[in-house]
Specification:
Low-confidence stretches: 1-9
Structural class: mainly alpha
Helix content: over 70%
Strand content: under 5%
Number of helices: 19
Number of strands: 0
Largest sheet: none
Shape: globular
Order of helices and strands: HHHHHHHHHHHHHHHHHHH
Mean pLDDT: 81
Radius of gyration: 28 Å
């Protein structure tokens, strides 16, 4: 007997099932819409916070410019802050002029990729050689001799120290020509981060930064840049610590990040295929690493925008305190930047390569930071903006004052009074910014190349004659000309006919060559008039009265 069992599904059950399915789908869609709306709202809030941070930042910079106007009523006040700037302002002005977007975006990415964790040596060199030794060797003597000679700029020093108006004019031309590419490199590096964080076109970033920097430099001169450098320096110190912690946290912490780096084989010819090269003590290419350390550390001894800080310093206490502060600042900021860049290989991605498969070094750091929370990216932008605007302000002030005081006043406007000279400098600040903006809108392949050319030519020309001029009476005018020719010659010839592998190494070679050329030429050329040099160096023998806590009296 066969029994057929029929399963009957009534209409009510079917309708309930369909309703449940539709309800679930509706809830899912509503959740997606709500999530999308919440994400959009969150992004809007974060963007608002970023914009508010920038508005506050720019407002403070402009306010400082207005406040500092009273210090910029004379040429000495506009160019040197009246030669009475305290230790904290001077130390931060030195440090923030030293490190900019070129270091954070260009150099940290490029050399971190090439040398791994050993790139941290560059930061250590910047702190020990570029800051500590620079203050110890140059600080006090620069202040004393430049005040004795009444020189306001580095070209002015060469003119007075060696008794040559032609040297003064040539030096001012070198300063003006070779500070332009350095300035352009600063715009370039910062604007890449702005594009990532705010989706603002590159050109608008360049123009905006130029305008705001010009405003506070024109209004307040050196004092405005010094006060703003202090504010910007505080932002840099806090920002770099936060960024390093966030990036390493995203890689599982410091130890795990180092372990990952140790597994990456070297692609550098010297250590090709060797695992662990990027975490070794001196890295995969110690010789080229040394060239970078020399350029970025010793180079500051011959850069007019750096040496000018010693002209303006107030007293002995400012020298001692400033030495310590600027060294600590360099350890944290420069050491932190290169340490962060040392982990660049962990962020290997198609986004950092061009169509030919070459690494775009300027894209490495922005790519490393792109995974950070939006608010942290905003902090990074303000950090790099602080570094860049402080350096840019120092460069435009140095260039305009040099061209005005050492070229125009010397040759065309000899009887011009202070007020008119200040107006000329302000106009030249605008001109200098405009020229550098035009260059920044059509930059070379990568910004580290620009900085290498600038630093190499300036430091290669000026470092040796300035250093020997402070210490050695036998230094001759002919030796200074030879140093100028050597510094500019090696850098520019290598640019068009590369006989040294990179602009970085060419710049380092130019500096070292100058240190040899100046004493050799001085010894084979006519000795300077002893009466003149003795009068110049007499400033070091002048007796002063100080307290026992500064110096113990002899028995």
């Amino acid at each position: 007997m066969k029994i057929n069992i029929e399963k009957k599904v009534d209409t009510e059950t079917v309708l309930c099932y369909i309703f449940d399915q539709k309800l679930s789908h509706f809830k899912a869609q509503r959740f997606k819409v709500r999530k999308k709306h919440n994400n959009k709202e969150r992004r809007g809030i974060v963007m608002t916070v970023k914009i508010v941070l920038l508005v506050i930042f720019f407002a403070v910079m402009a306010a400082v410019g207005i406040y500092s106007r009273r210090h910029a009523m004379s040429v000495d006040g506009f160019v040197l802050g009246g030669r009475s700037v305290g230790p904290w302002l001077t130390a931060f002005a030195y440090g923030t002029s030293y490190f900019s977007a070129v270091v954070f975006v260009g150099y940290a990415g490029q050399f971190g990729w090439k040398y791994g964790l050993s790139s941290t040596w560059i930061g250590i060199g910047n702190a020990v050689i570029g800051s500590l030794l620079a203050w110890v060797v140059l600080g006090r003597r620069t202040k004393v001799m430049t005040q004795h000679l009444n020189s306001r700029t580095m070209p002015d020093f060469f003119g007075e120290r060696y008794g040559s108006k032609a040297l003064k004019t040539a030096a001012s031309a070198i300063v003006f020509i070779f500070l332009v590419p350095y300035t352009a490199s600063i715009y370039n590096g910062l604007s890449r981060l702005f594009e990532m964080a705010f989706h603002v076109p590159y050109a608008w970033c360049v123009v905006g930064m130029a305008v705001f920097t010009g405003i506070y430099v024109i209004l307040g001169g050196y004092m405005a840049t010094a006060i703003n450098d202090f504010i910007q320096g505080i932002i840099m110190l806090a920002g770099i610590v936060i960024v390093i912690g966030a990036v390493l946290s995203g890689q599982g912490g410091f130890l795990e990040a180092v372990q990952k780096m140790a597994q990456i084989p070297s692609d550098v010819p010297v250590t090709l295929g060797q695992p662990g090269a990027f975490t070794s003590f001196f890295g995969p290419d110690p010789v080229n690493l040394l060239g970078v350390v020399i350029l970025t550390s010793l180079g500051t001894w011959g850069l007019p925008q750096m040496i000018g800080k010693f002209y303006a310093i107030k007293d002995e206490k400012s020298i001692n305190t400033g030495t310590v502060i600027s060294t600590i600042f360099a350890v944290v900021v420069s050491g932190g930047c290169y340490f962060l860049g040392g982990f660049a290989r962990l962020f290997d991605d198609p986004a950092i390569y061009d169509g030919s498969g070459n690494v775009i070094y300027d894209s490495i750091i922005p790519h490393m930071l792109s995974a950070l929370p939006d608010l942290l990216i905003g902090i990074v932008v303000v950090l790099v903006l602080s570094a860049s605007m402080s350096t840019l302000a120092s460069l435009v002030l140095t260039s305009s004052s040099t061209l005005t005081l050492d070229f125009l006043k010397e040759n065309l406007c000899r009887r011009m009074e202070d007020r008119k000279l200040i107006r000329v400098m302000q106009v030249l600040i605008v001109f200098f910014i405009a020229v550098s903006v035009l260059l920044a809108l059509n930059p070379p392949a990568f910004i580290a190349q620009l900085m290498g050319i600038s630093w190499g030519a300036l430091a290669g020309s000026f470092l040796a004659p300035f250093l020997y001029g402070l210490y050695w009476k036998r230094t001759t005018k002919a030796a200074v000309w030879a140093s100028f020719a050597t510094g500019v010659g090696i850098t520019t010839v290598n640019l068009f006919v590369p006989f040294i592998e990179s602009p970085i190494n060419a710049g380092a070679a130019a500096m070292l060559a100058g240190l040899l050329v100046v004493p050799v030429v001085s010894l084979v050329t006519k000795k300077p008039d002893p009466e003149i040099t003795d009068g110049i160096f007499a400033c070091y023998e002048e007796k002063v009265t100080i307290t026992k806590k500064r110096s113990l009296e002899q028995d």
